[in-house]
Structure formats: structure tokens, C-alpha cells
Write a structure and sequence with these properties.
The complex is a heterodimer. By secondary structure, chain A is mainly beta. Chain A has no helices and eleven strands. In chain B, a hairpin with a 6-residue loop joins β4 and β5. Classes of the chains: A mainly beta, B mainly beta.
């Protein structure tokens, strides 16, 4: 089976712009979670989706949003970008919602200038 | 909310020695504890996990132990090899959520 894929892999944006990141889960996986990884804050949970519904949200401002499509693919959007949003954004997929194995994609490296 | 503490932040061992990384969690309702290995520039890779109804799990050279009373769990790597050098993250989740709360990571260096 193909692993979790994310596009784009690298992105450079300017403050104030918005960005959309995409995640395709492992075939058959229905749950997708998003995490932000930075050297200072480590790995932090953004949100998780199952059956096209957001099930949990982390402690991030409303500028961070996401959605999931009927084929389980997911997108996250960050509006009005700030310098502090520069990070590696990782998505992870699992078979179903709950305490099950999660497999990460390669991440999207976002740089905000 | 859940808090996961991880120690040590860096660990250097000689090839062939054992390495132990420890994590403590705050929420007694936590029921799933995975460990991830992240090599430089790569994605976190799930290496082993344990559920709250199990005390120990082993997979070749790696093992994880869980002490629910003390609310801590540990990763044990035996016969370390240079390719074990990476950052290791522990994590915890609870209830019916997939949300993982991660520790701050341990940079393991295996020297020849």
C-alpha cells in the first residue's frame, strides 16, 4: 500500500497570505489528523477528521482550519499567515477514529517571510 | 489537558549498549502509548506502541513497558546500532480520540 502523501512538500509564503495544504491518507484509512512541528514547540496537535467531520481541535487560533472529503483526503488552510506559522505540517492517517496506529506523511515545510 | 514529559532530552550510548527513554503522562484516562522515531529530514515513524491493558511489549531489539500506577512508560533499545541514531518521541492518547499528545523528544546518538 502507498503511504500517506502530502502536497506540496515545500512552500514559501509572505505574511498576510493564506495557504492550503493537502493530505492523502493510506488507502482504507478514514481518520486524518494534522500536527505542527517546530523546534521550539515540538509536535502539536491541530485537528482530527473522521467521516468528513472535525472530531477534535487543538489549541490553535481560528486562522487554522481544515476539512475532509468523502474519499478521506484532507486539506488544512491557514489564513493571514504570520512569521510564527513557519513550521513542518504533518498529517497522519489511521484506520478509524480512536487509539489506533497513526502513520505520518512526509510533511509540508512552510516558510513565512 | 494531557501533558507528557520525556527524559532525557539527549542520550549518547556506545554501539552495543542499551538505551532507555522515559515518559510520564498526567491523564490517568490515557489508554494508548505509541513511540515514534524521526530521522533528520524524515517523517516520524511508528516503531512500537502499547495499550493500557498491557504491561510490556517487545519487538526484536525494542521494548516498551507501562506502569499505569506511576503513570509512566519507557522505551528500551538493546544492542544499539548506529542506525538507531535519531530523535525518539513518546505520545499518549485517551478515550475515543485519535489526538496524540507528544513528549518533547530524545535525541539518541549511537557512537562507534
Amino acid at each position: 500500500k502507498a503511504g500517506v502523501t502530502q502536497t506540496p512538500r515545500y512552500l514559501i509564503k509572505t505574511r498576510g497570505q493564506q495557504v492550503t495544504l493537502s493530505c492523502s491518507p493510506i488507502s482504507g484509512h478514514r481518520s486524518v489528523s494534522w500536527y505542527q512541528q517546530t523546534p521550539g514547540q515540538g509536535l502539536q496537535f491541530l485537528f482530527e477528521y473522521f467521516s468528513e467531520t472535525q472530531r477534535n481541535k487543538g489549541n490553535f487560533p481560528g486562522r487554522f482550519s481544515g476539512r475532509q472529503f468523502s474519499n478521506s483526503r484532507s486539506e488544512m488552510n491557514v489564513s493571514t499567515l504570520e512569521l510564527g506559522d513557519s513550521a513542518l505540517y504533518l498529517c497522519a492517517s489511521s484506520l478509524k477514529l480512536g487509539p489506533y496506529e497513526q502513520y505520518f506523511g512526509p510533511g509540508t515545510r512552510l516558510t513565512v517571510t | 489537558g494531557e501533558n507528557v514529559e520525556q527524559h532525557p532530552s539527549t542520550l549518547s550510548v556506545q554501539e552495543g549498549d542499551s538505551a532507555v527513554i522515559k515518559c510520564t503522562y498526567s491523564d490517568s484516562a490515557s489508554n494508548y502509548f505509541p513511540w515514534y522515531k524521526q530521522e533528520l529530514g524524515k517523517r516520524p515513524q511508528l516503531i512500537i506502541d502499547i495499550r493500557s491493558n498491557v504491561g510490556e511489549k517487545k519487538d526484536q531489539r525494542i521494548a516498551v513497558t507501562l506502569n499505569k500506577t506511576a503513570k509512566h512508560f519507557s522505551l528500551h533499545i538493546t544492542e544499539t546500532q548506529p542506525e538507531d541514531s535519531a530523535v525518539y518521541f513518546c505520545a499518549a492518547s485517551w478515550g475515543t480520540a485519535s489526538k496524540l499528545t507528544f513528549g518533547t523528544g530524545t535525541r539518541l546518538q549511537v557512537t562507534l
